[in-house]
Amino acid sequence: MVSERVWTLPNLLSVLRLLLIPVFGFLIVTHRDGWALAVLALSGVSDYLDGHLARRWDQVTRLGQVLDPFADRLYIATTLLGLAYRGVIPWWLVAVLVARDAVMVATVPILARVGHGVLRVHFLGKLGTFCLLSSFPFLLLSVVVPALAGPAWVLGWAFAVWGTGLYWWAGLLYVQQAARVVRAERAALR
Questions:
Q1: According to the lineage, what is the superkingdom (predicted)?
Q2: Can you say whether the dihedral through the CA atoms of 97, 103, 107, 109 is positive or negative?
Q3: Which of 41, 105, 25 is nearest to 70 (CA)?
């Protein structure tokens, strides 16, 4: 059951994650890679915990349903830009992932025109986000700890490739779902 509550531990974890985004951005741009890695890892743990605790403690809220994916998108964008700026990842990866989010944003006004809100998060989208958020610490670790550079780089790119594929697959499913919703709403008006 979705609650209207605001002050829950899962929501506080999401807010903490949002507050850490500019901290991570500052750390990565100023070459404080060890601290940036720690903040990124903390963010990943809090991302897992907020969803897990919300479901386990029956604290799923409308605010949490908005905050969590919003924090995920901002973390992905900030991390992508920071890692690309530092040369850890190529700019084409940034473009591929931003293009997917642009497609998703384009569905919002289309759905709004037929009186429908944002679509529910799909499992593949969650899995893609998990893979992407898992790839970034490994890619950064490959820079921070030279002794682990090889394995960390391979794991990071494995997660990045899978995450990108799943991210786009989920995006295409969202577009399909949005098209069905629009068709159904238009048919209901006839």
A1: Bacteria
A2: positive
A3: 105
Amino acid 117: pLDDT: 76
121/123 Cα distance (integer angstroms): 7
Distances 16 to 50, 75, 123, 166, 186 between C-alpha atoms, Å: 10, 12, 24, 27, 41
What is the chain's percent helix, strand, coil content, to nearest 5? 85, 0, 15
Token pair recorded at residue 141: 């670790």
What predicted TM-score, i.e. pTM, was given to this entire model?
Answer: 0.84
Domain boundaries, the chain: 1-87, 90-190
DSSP reduced 3-state for 87: coil
Q: Which two three-digit tokens encode residue 29?
A: 């741009």
Q: What does the block give as tokens for 16?
A: 């903490």
Q: Kindly report the number of other CB atoms within 10 A of residue 105's CB atom.
A: 10
**Single-letter amino acid code for the residue at 5:** R
Those residues of the chain that have pLDDT short of 50 are none
Nearest to residue 35, comparing CAs of 19, 24, 50, 44?
Answer: 24
Query: Look-up: residue for tokens 């929501």?
Result: 11
Written as six digits, the tokens of 181 are 């919703």
